[in-house]
Amino acid sequence: MENLKNVAFSALEALKARGAQQAAVSASFSETKEFNVDGGEFSLFRTLFDNSLSLTAVKDGKKGSIGVNHFDTETINSAADNCIASAEASEADDNWEFGPDAGEHSFEDGITEPDMNLFFRRCQELVETIKSDFPKIMIEQLIASHNTLSTVYINTNGTVFERKSGLYNLMIMFSGHENGKGSSFFGTGFSTCDLSMAFIDQASLKRDLADVEKQIDTVPVSGKFEGTILLSPGCLGNVLYYGLSNFANGNAVNAGTSLWKDKLGEMVADERLTISLAPRSEEIVCGDRWTGDGYLCEDFELIKEGKLNSFIMDKYFSNKTGFERSGNYCVGNMIVPAGTTPLSEIIAGIDRGLMVGRISGGNPSSSGDFSMVAKNSFIIENGKIGDAVSEVMINGNLAELFKNIRDISKEKEPDGSCSLPWIAFDGVTISGK
Amino acid sequence: MIKDILSGYKSSMPDGVHTELRAQMNRNRAVVLMSGNIIRNEREDISGVSARSYKNGVYGFASMAEISDDAVKKVLKASLENAEFLDKHISKNREIFPALPDGRFMRDISMPDPEQKIYVEILRMMDDYIEKNCPGLVSRMLMATSNGVEKLLVCSDGHDIHDDITRSHIKFKLTAMGNSGNPVDLAGSFGGYGSMLEIANNMEGLYRQVDGVYERLMDKRSGIHPEAGIKTVVMGSTMAGILAHEAVGHTVEADLVMGGSVARPMLNKQVASELVSLTDFANTAYGQQTPQPIYVDDEGTPAKDAEIIKNGILVGYMNSRESAQRFGVEPCGNARAWLFSDEPLIRMRNTLILPGKDKLEDIISSVDDGYYLLDYNNGQADTTGEFMFGICSGYEIKNGKLGRPILDTTITGMAFDMLKTVDMVSDTINWTSSGTCGKKQPMAVGMGGPALRCKVMIGGR
């Protein structure tokens, strides 16, 4: 860590010596050990040693940034030269600002000394369990890694942050196959520091595998109707991400394209919905501890009981728009409190709709209109889960969706990055062939 | 320029192990101008060395963020140890790949790397042009990007290379207020192979691209939601590119074939109309250099075109050396890695649906009731061949004539079903190369094709 601090301070001094009035430097060293399974077989073991040095300078109100991955003096000086040259090529904007002196903070979390033998055995166990308990499943790819990161952030206001962290990540993609037929592929994963539990029992993996086995045979949905979509926690995370990016992101507010730009303090969602961005929560594994512009991360409620409490706003966009900076900018670390209704009761109350495991579609437009393919999904009719479906589209508007919540489940499926329940939304157009 | 300290290690690579040793530098440049303000101004230079060892059917890989003899020795040792760790626990006992002929490929690697102020100046000129010529916008986002990759590769067998490929683009998104009171937006891109200087020397071409996007955005303000259901559509040539890449290309990557993709049982079977042929070109198509010219891949395989669909019949997959061995075919050079710290994966290079004989205007006039789909903002496909493309620009076709513009929507279908409905193929093609394919690692790819008439399911309200 001392070496990283020396590198960071050398780079900061190099920027100041070249005329930067404000500057920030982040220096990191990472080590990754990763097992890969392809087509159901272990295929690769990787070991990666990497460095990262990021320099940002503001000179005469002009900002420039550069990233390199070497720490030698020649590279640092060259990077400082290029960073200042980039800044000088830019245009003055008084809104660039780093956080004030936050003092010195040191963090250590997660597992920084991995047990790779146990980790490999857990991976082997998972592959064998899937083969025995889910015989129709083909693992297309499994990537299991342990990542250790040592990082230092400093800026010209006096802030010094340092951190050492480590965690295990697992990402798996698979599909179901039987009698020459195949399901859609499905991807899921989790982050953890705990190897005491079998991987098959982590996050939503067991349920996901069972669902995909049932999705080998699909039926088309006929016609078009307005119905209810029940989104799994993983799928919900994507939909919320799209909505918050379009409506709550500082960039969209600043650009004037956000439908919520004039809605701060107003109801934008059903009163049962609360969304927190919470990288420091115990439910989040090794979430960020500081922001890129030099503030300590603080968890906050973005939407509280349906009311828009804040935008996702860094200091630059805060200065641009006049809205308050938010406590963090970690859209990937959402927590939604559970509801009170068991999932089975929510399903039992749906007359006609879809239980959706994945959506395939791009970022909805600024208007919030979306048109997506429902993948890994089941029809719900008369309160019962029916056949898996294919070639079904769901259409609607994200801003309306936030208001049209039918119910929120009592159950949640935290995966180390997010902690979300199931949510059912009404008023969605479902169309088949 | 990367100094060759790798070649000296070739003679010490162990027998019975396929070994690749690679030094690489990625140069990324980006400037973003949002409604006149620079909100991003970055340069990134990432370099290092990596080694991959293939022994008894498993790979070991290791990388370090420095290019030195010490780092080379460490990654060679660690990659072999990693392969041996897996071999000890897995014991596949597969044979090494058939040897490739030795060779060496060096290309002119003096690719220019313009100063950051060139990127800023281009965007500023473009922003001035938009302010002056494109009234009525709510916002405008302009981005100048460049990705350069220099590689030095030494293999235990096959071709060694020293190559440098750069692509540069201007991407932009214009937003206006639609007649319904909701914002509508449309994006465009301009550029391709080469440095940002080539765009600087063709600002008129960039302005013409802006004009076209602006004109369609103004139309889109009064856009309607298309009627949902299966419709006859004319997919513009840009759409054919994403169809070639996402809906077909991924399903015929041999690693996904082995993972159970829809193409697995379809080899030598009819998967498309006989009007449809598709090739993944290595570096040259129809006498012209492709957007992502690959001469030797990252496993040392000399690159050649991979024919995938010929007159509607699936005739081949895209392979690495390992998958080619398993399928009993020759590899065509599709194994590519993004960063020095990435291992080669089976990737597309320049995937093209081949042109036909019809004129675009004849194709449009042949449609009584359908849609002309011009551009997409997203594309995804399943290993089942089910695809989804977000459509951001298009028009109705009524009685053979273009009608009202449509709002954002989505089309979906099963690739091999949809391709069988293709009954007209235009005689001109269009390449795009600004996108980045995602598959564990990002990858720069080219894609393209002609306009197609076909049937597809379109979303609506």
Question: Can you offer a commentary on this structure?
Answer:
- The complex is a heterodimer of chains A (433) and B (461).
- Chain A is an alpha+beta fold and 433 residues long.
- Chain A contains 9 helices and 20 strands.
- Chain A has helices spanning 2-17, 73-89, 116-133, 205-214, 233-247, 250-255, 315-321, 343-348, 398-403, and strands at 22-38, 41-59, 62-68, 104-110, 137-155, 160-178, 181-182, 186-192, 218-220, 224-231, 275-277, 300-304, 307-308, 334-335, 352-360, 369-381, 384-390, 393-397, 405-412, 421-431.
- In chain A, strands 1, 2, 3, 4, 5, 6, 7 and 8 form an 8-stranded mixed β-sheet that branches.
- The mean pLDDT of chain A is 94.
- Chain B has 461 residues and is α+β, with helices and mostly antiparallel strands.
- Chain B folds into 2 domains: 7-220, PmbA/TldD superfamily (PmbA/TldD fold, 2-Layer Sandwich), CATH 3.30.2290.10; 229-458, no CATH class.
- Helix content of chain B is 21%, strand content 41%.
- Chain B is built from 9 helices and 26 strands.
- Chain B has helices spanning 69-90, 116-133, 196-200, 203-220, 237-249, 254-258, 321-327, 360-365, 415-418, and strands at 18-34, 37-55, 58-64, 103-106, 137-155, 159-177, 183-193, 229-235, 278-281, 284-285, 288-289, 306-310, 313-314, 335-336, 345-346, 350-353, 369-381, 386-398, 401-405, 409-414, 424-425, 430-432, 436-439, 441-444, 446-449, 452-458.
- In chain B, the strands form 6 sheets. In chain B, strands 1, 2, 3, 4, 5, 6 and 7 form a 7-stranded mixed β-sheet that branches. Chain B has a 6-stranded mixed β-sheet with strand order 13-12-9-16-25-22.
- Chain B is globular.
- At the A-B interface, strand 2, strand 3, helix 2, strand 5 and helix 6 of A face strand 2, strand 3, helix 1, helix 2 and strand 5 of B.
- Strand 3 (62-68) of chain A pairs parallel with strand 2 of chain B, so a sheet runs across the interface.
